[in-house]
Design goal:
single chain, alpha+beta, 2 domains, 4-stranded mixed β-sheet, 3-stranded antiparallel β-sheet, 7 strands, elongated
Length: 140
């Protein structure tokens, strides 16, 4: 926590040299210090904003789970324009899991051959948008 003198000195360094500070200035040091956090302390307590996960992150998925429409905004890095992206998701224990259209297409084929299939899992390979592939594996 800064002392009054340290805070005044810091303010003097940041202001133009011809700017005068009256010694009777009232600073609320507790309020100033309350808004300051060391990077390492912040990083330890950091929890990323809720983010949609991927269906391949689940060990198994029921074919009876509700499929929902979802959307999110993304900023184009080249044009700085905000675009709305549509996606299909399932919600498991309050978490959203994205369901790629290729998974839905493969599940359709599985269900045509095995209409009694109740569970499946999804294997994901690849690491980039161009090489990511999904494989639907029926479990029963």
């Amino acid at each position: 926590m800064l002392t009054r003198e340290q805070a005044l000195e810091q303010i003097r360094r940041e202001l133009p040299s011809d700017f005068e500070i009256h010694e009777n200035i009232q600073l609320n040091f507790e309020e100033v210090n309350k808004n300051m956090t060391k990077l390492n302390a912040y990083a330890k307590d950091y929890e990323p904003a809720s983010k949609t996960k991927n269906i391949a992150d689940l060990k198994e998925v029921s074919t009876e789970v509700e499929l929902e429409d979802d959307e999110f905004e993304v900023k184009d890095k080249k044009t700085n324009e905000v675009k709305v992206v549509q996606q299909k998701v399932i919600i498991i224990s309050g978490e959203k899991y994205r369901v790629p259209s290729s998974v839905i297409a493969q599940l359709k084929i599985v269900l045509e051959d095995n209409p009694n299939c109740k569970k499946f899992k999804v294997k994901k390979t690849g690491t980039t948008i161009d090489d990511t592939r999904y494989q639907v594996i029926p479990l029963g």
